[in-house]
Design brief:
Helices cover 37% and strands 15% of the residues. By secondary structure, it is α/β, with parallel strands linked by helices. It has a 5-stranded parallel beta sheet, with helices on both faces. Strands 10-9-8-11-12 form a 5-stranded parallel beta sheet. The protein has a two-stranded parallel ribbon with strand order 4-5. It starts with a strand and ends with a helix. Bound molecules: phosphoric acid mono(formamide)ester.
Length: 315
């Protein structure tokens, strides 16, 4: 595996899920594989789960880990080729990526969407810049359009908790006070499409995701209708793709609460975290036995371990 930014970089989602399951059962089963290998993790944005679960996954494989919060600790990086660097940026990506490649065997990058420039975001300018100039394999720890490590953990969580062969899985837009990227929602659809499930998206008018991710799926603008008989409800806010980056304080009635969960087939509740309580989902749902959010976060370690294992295996 030369990079990990989407499902296109792997042979098979079910096979990668099996590897993650192996590591969940045997976290130290391959603890010598990463000896003398160094993992570099670069964060342009905040993180709790991704940072710690990826570090833990690397440690379980015997790797050394270097972590840097680039925005707070590093030089300000210029990404444009041919830039005349007489403004605030002190270091060009070309040197930054090449230098990192001297210290690290694999490089993880977290770089959220700007939500101001749809073209640049959907071209994955930052992540693809690192892939271009790094001399080592690069993987996404959430990019502008996708969050594959989260999605692998989500697929594993559904697989472990489904009670029917082909569950109904509903991705529901939920309210949020700030504009958020579409990455988690896009990626969830991309990965779940590769599993045996009935996948439904529900969101208010004006908040349809990019057709690149919703193609072939049912989009329902009536949330209660969509939730009927769901086995899994995945709540997530995303800002508008159409009116790029716009948010709204309308649709506050899209919060997932017990009344809505009662429409489902005793569905399990999912969210990637962090979550705004009583905005995205009520305390009652989040605290209930139907909530899987902590298990999703737990599975992040084994998802990351499966991906790092693939990198190590492929050299
Ligand atoms: N779900 C997730 O990626 O969490 P963090 O932003 O805390 O890493």
């Amino acid at each position: 595996m030369k990079q990990f930014i989407s499902t296109q970089d792997i042979d098979s989602v079910p096979k990668l899920v099996q590897i993650a399951k192996y590591f969940k059962a045997s976290p130290h089963g391959k603890e010598h594989l990463g000896k003398n290998k160094t993992l570099g993790l670069l964060f342009f944005n905040s993180s709790l789960r991704t940072r710690l679960s990826t570090q833990k996954a690397a440690q379980n494989l015997g790797m050394n880990v270097l972590v840097m919060n680039v925005d707070e600790e590093g030089w300000k990086i210029e990404f444009d080729e041919g830039a005349v660097m007489n403004q605030g940026e002190q270091e060009h990506l070309q040197e930054a990526a090449a230098v990192l490649s001297q210290y690290c065997d694999f490089i993880g990058v977290r770089s959220f969407a700007s939500l101001t420039d749809r073209e640049a975001d959907y071209e994955e300018k930052i992540l693809r810049g690192f892939i271009r100039y790094a001399k080592k394999p690069v993987f996404s720890m959430e990019s502008a359009t996708r969050h594959p490590l989260q999605s692998l953990a989500d697929v594993l969580t559904v697989e472990e908790n489904k009670t029917v062969e082909k569950p109904k899985v509903v991705l529901s837009w939920a309210p949020h006070p700030l504009p958020l990227p579409q990455a988690v929602a896009n990626s969830f659809l991309e990965w779940m499409k590769q599993t045996d499930c009935e996948l439904v998206v529900t969101n208010p008018e004006g908040f349809d995701l990019s057709e690149e991710f919703t193609e072939g799926l049912e989009i329902v603008h009536d949330q209660c209708e969509a939730l009927k008989n769901a086995d899994f409800v995945y709540a997530k806010n995303w800002s508008s793709f159409e009116n790029y980056g716009a948010t709204t304080d309308a649709f506050s009635d899209w919060t997932i609460d017990s009344r809505k969960m009662a429409l489902t087939n005793r569905a399990r509740f999912m969210h990637c975290l962090p979550v705004r309580r009583n905005v995205v989902v009520t305390d009652e749902v989040l605290n209930s036995e139907h909530s899987l959010v902590i298990e999703q976060a737990n599975n992040r370690t084994f998802a990351a371990q499966a991906v790092l294992y693939k990198f190590l295996q492929d050299g």
